[in-house]
Design goal:
Chain A is mainly alpha-helical and 171 residues long. Chain A contains 6 helices and no strands. Helices cover 66% and strands 0% of the residues of chain B. The chains are: A mainly alpha (171), B mainly alpha (82). Chain A: It comes from Streptomyces echinoruber.
Chain lengths: 171, 82
């Protein structure tokens, strides 16, 4: 009994380590975009990553063929959404130094943009994950993209390096 | 077409600078996950214990009280005129 338990623990640790080394980079990048922190100073994103990976570790034996990356991403998004919703409006961070490229967007738009464009999650899945309608997701995504590519004059702080000269015609 | 190009531009912007993964992330995740797991096991054990205690208490009570036996009647028809 005990031996079986130990063997199971060892197998879980091995599999999980392989997964984590592969997925941590991408997940941390997504988390850093979500929290709009500087890529080299991102304590909130690291915390989110640790929690998401920890949750994946805890549910590892009950995955039943589901993609662990999917699970971790889902948890990350849900966790970020909960924190952003509950503490909205986000206390403006007292750190003036250059933040991530999405710092000018509100948390919900960041979340939709990262899930849809960075992670490539389908529109229906994003909608289901966030409890929004598909149209709403599309509108939020379009608005966020527009705001990112054409920062409104005056209100936009330096958005971490000017966006590339995207040839975006107005109509 | 226009939309696709705009999305490609945003993607390029998002991919721009990837953060470096700190080496202790894996150990931290295992620690956090292990704690979650232990807590879950403990909660499950406690609930089973509670269920067991409730079942035992009910059995003891039932054996003692015999709730299935009809209680003796307390009322009788008035006995008059004999």
């Amino acid at each position: 009994m005990r031996e079986r338990h130990a063997a199971k623990d060892a197998r879980r640790a091995r599999e999980f380590e392989a997964f984590a080394t592969g997925a941590a980079g991408r997940l941390l990048h997504a988390a850093t975009l979500l929290t709009a922190e500087d890529p080299h100073d991102n304590p909130r994103a690291r915390r989110l990553l640790t929690l998401a990976l920890g949750h994946t570790y805890a549910t590892w034996d009950r995955l039943r063929g589901e993609d662990p990356y999917d699970r971790a991403r889902q948890y990350l998004a849900a966790r970020f959404a909960r924190e952003a919703w509950h503490h909205a409006p986000f206390p403006r961070r007292a750190r003036p130094h250059p933040a991530g490229p999405l710092a000018a967007l509100p948390p919900r738009e960041r979340l939709v943009l990262v899930l849809r464009l960075f992670e490539g999650v389908a529109e229906e899945q994003t909608a289901a994950l966030l409890g929004l309608s598909q149209e709403r997701v599309r509108v939020l995504c379009d608005r966020a993209a527009a705001r990112l590519l054409h920062p409104p004059r005056g209100s936009a702080p330096a958005v971490g390096g000017a966006p590339p000269a995207a040839p975006v015609a107005a109509p | 077409m226009n939309r696709a190009r705009r999305e490609a531009a945003v993607r390029a912007l998002l991919e721009h600078s990837a953060p470096r993964v700190p080496p202790e992330v894996y150990a931290d995740a295992v620690r956090v996950g292990g704690r979650m797991l232990r807590r879950r096991v403990l909660a499950r054990r406690l609930l089973w214990l509670l269920l067991l205690a409730a079942a035992v208490a009910f059995t003891v009570w039932a054996v003692d009280v015999h709730p299935w036996v009809e209680p003796p009647s307390r009322t009788t028809t008035p006995l008059t005129g004999w």
